[in-house]
């Protein structure tokens, strides 16, 4: 996969500006809970409607600027991802055209089609989401934890304890599913190859009455791919419920600690709401991170398959003589024109 990153050359500006605008959006998002806490403590508690309206306007302004930053980041990310995949697809096609017939037969035409279409599309999605979320999600997670420490150290210890647990869950599932998705893509090659062979040789199959045998073989291959997809999907599906359970337990503990702090006068109600909002932000971002990791896992597996095609040295060389270097003449004998 690392060998494919050179095709991002020329899109350095987009690869830098996309994540930067996402970090700008995340910064505004981290400020919103503090604005809400200020509304609760200074506006609602004292009945100051003017202050409430002013802070609501500030919150709307943060939302508008954050939306503009997000749209800009997605534009730059899309430009880089689409340009990368276009350049990679052209390179793969040019490389395949230089392969010998024996190498094409060795890899299989269906495998090459899959790697030029489905695999490169997966890599494109992986690049797009990586530029948009790979820096944003950890920034929000650790930023929310830091903001929690600025509010109350003891309550922030809940954040410090839950984040490592969630990281273990997320990265553990990623390491388990990565080889499983590789096997799924290999099964997809087999199904594509069977479909292509049946469509190409349909007349031969009918002539030798092999329809039932090919149908049975195709069903066996599709069922095998389905089993592999279900196995990978079941493990990936554990991501959301397990993280939700951990986060909700952390929220219960946070609310309990916050209630004791409010009763003793250490914290205000608005600051407890801010802590809860930061915990909710961590939950949302970790779910995004989990989905991103699944997408990156698929993209890395597909990228390695595409790279394996590019690593194959062509077994034939193109001619070096040009038409201008060729000399000859045409001679007609015993020819008559009517």
Structure description:
This protein has a single domain, classed as ABC transporter transmembrane region fold. Helix content is 83%, strand content 0%. It is mainly alpha-helical. The longest helix is centred in the N-terminal third of the chain and has 49 residues, at 49-97. 29% of the residues are buried. The chain has helices at residues 12-44, 49-97, 101-107, 109-133, 136-151, 153-200, 202-207, 211-237, 239-264, 269-310. The mean pLDDT is 84.
In short:
This protein has 338 residues and is an all-alpha fold. The protein contains ten helices and no strands.
Describe the SSE topology:
Blueprint: H1 12-44, H2 49-97, H3 101-107, H4 109-133, H5 136-151, H6 153-200, H7 202-207, H8 211-237, H9 239-264, H10 269-310
Helix pairs in contact: 1-2, 1-5, 1-10, 2-4, 4-6, 4-10, 5-6, 5-10, 6-8, 6-9, 6-10, 9-10
């Amino acid at each position: 996969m690392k060998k494919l990153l050179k095709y991002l050359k020329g899109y350095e500006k987009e690869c830098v500006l996309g994540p930067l605008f996402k970090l700008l959006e995340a910064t505004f998002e981290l400020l919103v809970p503090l604005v809400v806490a200020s509304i609760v403590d200074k506006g609602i508690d004292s009945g100051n409607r003017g202050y409430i309206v002013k802070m609501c306007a500030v919150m709307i302004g943060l939302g508008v600027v954050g939306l503009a930053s997000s749209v800009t980041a997605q534009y730059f990310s899309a430009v880089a991802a689409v340009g990368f995949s276009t350049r990679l697809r052209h390179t793969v096609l040019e490389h395949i055209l230089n392969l010998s017939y024996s190498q094409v037969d060795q890899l299989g035409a269906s495998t090459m089609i899959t790697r030029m279409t489905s695999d490169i599309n997966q890599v494109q999605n992986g690049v797009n989401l990586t530029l948009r979320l790979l820096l944003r999600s950890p920034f929000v997670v650790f930023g929310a934890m830091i903001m929690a420490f600025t509010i109350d150290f003891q309550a922030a210890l809940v954040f410090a304890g839950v984040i490592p647990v969630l990281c273990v869950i997320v990265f553990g599932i990623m390491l388990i599913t990565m080889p499983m998705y590789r096997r799924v893509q290999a099964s997809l090659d087999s199904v594509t190859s069977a479909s292509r062979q049946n469509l190409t040789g349909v007349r031969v199959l009918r002539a030798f009455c092999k329809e039932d045998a090919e149908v049975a073989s195709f069903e066996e291959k599709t069922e095998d791919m389905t089993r592999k997809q279900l196995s990978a999907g079941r493990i990936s599906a554990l991501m959301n419920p397990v993280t939700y359970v951990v986060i909700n337990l952390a929220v219960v503990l946070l609310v309990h600690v916050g209630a004791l702090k409010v009763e003793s006068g250490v914290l205000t109600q608005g600051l407890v709401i801010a802590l809860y909002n930061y915990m909710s932000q961590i939950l949302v971002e970790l779910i995004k991170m989990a989905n991103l990791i699944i997408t990156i896992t698929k993209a890395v597996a597909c990228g390695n398959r595409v790279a394996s095609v590019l690593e194959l040295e062509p077994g034939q060389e193109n001619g070096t003589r040009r038409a201008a270097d060729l000399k000859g003449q045409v001679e007609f004998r015993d020819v008559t024109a009517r």
